[in-house]
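Please, structure for the following, as tokens.
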Amino acid sequence: MGYSYRDISFGNLFFNPDTGDVLICDNDNVSVNSQDDSAVYGTPRFMAPEIVLGTAKPSRNTDLYSLAVLLFYMFMLNHPLEGKLEADIKCMDIHAMNLLYGKRPIFIFDPDDKSNRPVKGYHDNAIIYWDIYPQSLRDLFTESFTVGLRQPNRRVTEKQWLDTFANLMGGIVVCPSCGSEVFFDEQKEMMSVAHTCWRCQGPVKIPASFVIGRSRVLITSQTKLYSYHLFGDNDMSKIAGVVVQNPNNPNLWGIRNETSENWTYVKPDGTQTTVPPGKTAAIARDVKINFGQRIGEFR
């Protein structure tokens, strides 16, 4: 909308753990992008390096950095720049903070610089959680806190986060041994590396998937397609399709059309049939469904 928030932090953003709904409060710091008409420049530990150093004004780009910090906290329960260098500091005064978050920021999982790795026994959250998530999410955090540290115009955008989180949601499979949720990692599949449970280390079989553009949804009895998948509108609350089982033969699965539009069901031989609202499209390998704006394929 052309505004910058200037103060993304723990105190100003909340989310409902049951629904995922987000609440933004304390809006007195919102101003026109890159315009210096507010006394608030951010919250320590969330401010972009250029704000810490005083070389830039708050902007959309500095907000994107603060957003990445908040997301890293949420997923890894650790600050992205607090590793060995932070553990070695004896007095966390303004000079130490300026060095750590402004003059010499180093991502704790920087692939080219290991000088600020998490310290075992001190930064255990980061060590534990980093490997739980798929490479796609780790790549966005790495981009945010390597290239994004010094090149504000190359920071990860909202759309990139939304696309990755949608795939994260659609890629959850339950461990058959302990019931823990495990995330599908496309890189592991490409490298023929088996998925294992992060909790019990047992093998986890990945089910068939439904690929729609850049989205991949694993086919389980709980799978739902959302408006986001079919129309790319970022709406992950409006259900557009639901996986169902044939009551007469539970081995036959399909996706029921929960939209108000017809779908086109395309078989591998090119034969096409219409799937009206409320009707079900059978799930079968190499079959495609044309939703109008996007086409999905079972794999």
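The chain has a mean pLDDT of 93. The chain has two domains: 3-156, 164-298.
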